[in-house]
Design brief:
Layout (H helix, E strand, L loop, with lengths): L3 E5 L3 H13 L3 E5 L2 H10 L4 E5 L7 H11 L4 E7 L3 H10 L3 E5 L3 H14 L47 H15 L4 E4 L6 H10 L8 E5 L8 H6 L16 H4 L4 E5 L6 H13 L1 E3 L6 E3 L3 E6 L3 H7 L4 H7 L2 E4 L10 H15 L6 E2 L1 H9 L5 H16 L4 E2 L1 H4 L2 H16 L6 H15 L4 H8 L3 H9 L10
Parallel strand pairs: 1-2, 1-3, 3-4, 4-5, 6-11, 6-12, 7-8, 8-11, 13-14
Antiparallel strand pairs: 9-10
Helix pairs in contact: 6-7, 10-12, 13-15, 17-18, 18-19, 19-20
Length: about 475
């Protein structure tokens, strides 16, 4: 049984508290005020987990971490730190620590992290002798009911979710992906819309110890403000108008699995505080309930916004950013890795010819040259869509050409809308012109933002932002 813990802290009161809490929970504990004494003990005894304070006079927590990683790589390390040293703790995680906990903390918080370590620790089981005592009790698993969550993985096959590329930036991400996957720390993935953030997130889940558990996806930008909290945490019957029964949320559905929060910067600032609580204390409350629920969920968040700007604007919490940004991942835009375009084209052509049971196809030389030189504002997603359309429209042809990927219908409709907007307007700013064109296009699509975005050649997120930033006092009759 893997349950042997060594605790190091030069604060005698805190050390005694942790020793009592862990021992009472059935773990075999050795406690040291002296870091040097702890490392001497490690030279002669096997330990599964080391819990060490960061700031100690005789020896720093970093030095303890370094010693354990070098001499006992099979042993996990949890760091204890003050809130003001979160940046330091994040760097420790990047070096190889399993987790960290901020002071002050409650007994259930340290127990949650310890139990999570022993549940996920990939090291082989091993037998140890004294000087430890107290057998650890069995840990029961508690599966959540997923039936009420629809934003889950929709069964994409492995061919569709590969994160591919030969660019040095992509190769680096591919190399570190297994290490990130084996960890349970939160991940924040940044990059422009369409670069492949969700694909990278899904690969993290697939390569993790949680791959057989639930993978839940929530698009934060598409959630109505009044439903965000209920969607994430669930609610009790009668908690608000329309709450006719108890309902579980995404954190319930993702229990023991992974929760992807796409476009996390779009979540209301008040809900961000509750997300931070889940990350810090591993528990949440359903709307209308005072009963805490334990959470064993790995969080992956994505954003295509400049988070530094969002923090300075007050729309994103800095402490939540630090909690999420353990592994800073940035997916490069397609225009910065054009050498990968032929590889991606071949991948998508094969993917869609296989899907539709078509004969092998290839892209014509002149089309390939133009695709390589294109700026790709929509990144890999835009390229994917074009190749998808080309495979379908090329039908029995062995070659995909310009005529197969040019969307003449959308182009003609968008051009007509632009002419209509420009035909009867006085001088106005570019921003006003853009907003007017967006509104006219939405009239044409009967409010369908995704269809309007396709017509205009922009992302639906851009449309949402333009409408959200509209001055409420401005007139629409320019």
């Amino acid at each position: 049984m893997k349950d042997r813990i060594l605790v190091v802290d030069d604060d005698q009161l805190l050390l005694g508290f942790m020793e009592e809490v862990l021992s009472d929970s059935g773990f075999k504990v050795k406690a040291f005020q002296s870091p040097a004494g702890a490392t001497d003990f490690l030279k002669k005894n096997k330990v599964d987990l080391v819990i060490t304070d960061v700031k100690m006079a005789e020896m720093t927590g970093d030095e303890v971490l370094s010693y354990v990683l070098t001499n006992h790589p099979e042993t996990g390390v949890i760091m204890i730190t003050g809130f003001g040293n979160i940046n330091h703790a994040v760097r420790a995680l990047q070096k190889g620590a399993y987790d960290y906990i901020t002071k002050p903390f409650k007994s259930k918080e340290i127990l949650f992290r310890v139990n999570r370590f022993f549940k996920s620790d990939p090291a082989p089981k091993r037998e140890h002798k004294a000087p430890f005592s107290n057998p650890a009790p069995g840990k029961a698993k508690n599966k959540a009911d997923m039936s009420l969550i629809e934003d889950k993985d929709e069964g994409n096959d492995d061919d569709e979710i590969k994160f591919i590329g030969n660019d040095p930036q992509i190769k680096k991400l591919q190399r570190i992906m297994p290490r990130i996957a084996r960890n349970t720390a939160p991940v924040l993935i940044q990059g422009e819309s369409g670069t492949g953030k969700e694909v990278f997130a899904h690969q993290i889940h697939k390569q993790s110890d949680r791959s057989e558990a639930a993978y839940i996806k929530i698009n934060c930008a598409n959630l109505p403000t009044e439903l965000v909290e209920s969607t994430l945490f669930g609610h009790k019957k009668g908690a608000f108008t329309g709450a006719i029964s108890d309902r579980q949320g995404a954190f319930d559905a993702a229990n023991e699995g992974t929760l992807l929060l796409d476009e996390i910067t779009e979540i209301d600032i008040n809900i961000q505080a509750k997300l931070l609580r889940v990350l810090q204390e591993n528990e949440f409350y359903r709307v209308g309930s005072q009963k805490p629920i334990q959470s064993d969920v790995r969080i992956i968040a994505t954003s295509n916004r400049n988070i530094a700007e969002a923090i300075s604007e007050g729309s994103f919490r800095e402490d939540l950013y630090y909690r999420l940004n353990v592994f800073p991942i940035t997916i490069p835009p397609l225009r910065n890795r054009k050498g990968d375009i032929p590889l991606l084209i071949n991948h998508f052509v094969k993917q869609y010819t296989d899907r539709y049971n078509l004969d092998d196809k290839k892209v014509s030389d002149d089309l390939l040259e133009d695709l390589i030189n294109k700026e790709w504002r929509g990144n890999v997603r835009e390229l994917n869509n074009k190749i998808h359309r080309g495979v379908i429209l090329s039908n029995d042809s062995e070659e995909i050409t310009h005529e197969h990927i040019d969307n003449n219908l959308h182009s003609s409709v968008a051009a007509e809308l632009r002419r209509e907007v420009l035909s009867d307007v006085p001088l106005m700013s570019i921003e006003d012109m853009e907003l007017r064109l967006i509104k006219k296009t939405l009239e044409h699509t009967q409010g369908n933002q995704k269809e309007a975005a396709k017509l205009l050649g922009i992302s639906d997120r851009t449309i949402r932002n333009k409408l959200k930033n509209e001055d409420p006092d401005s007139s629409e009759s320019h």
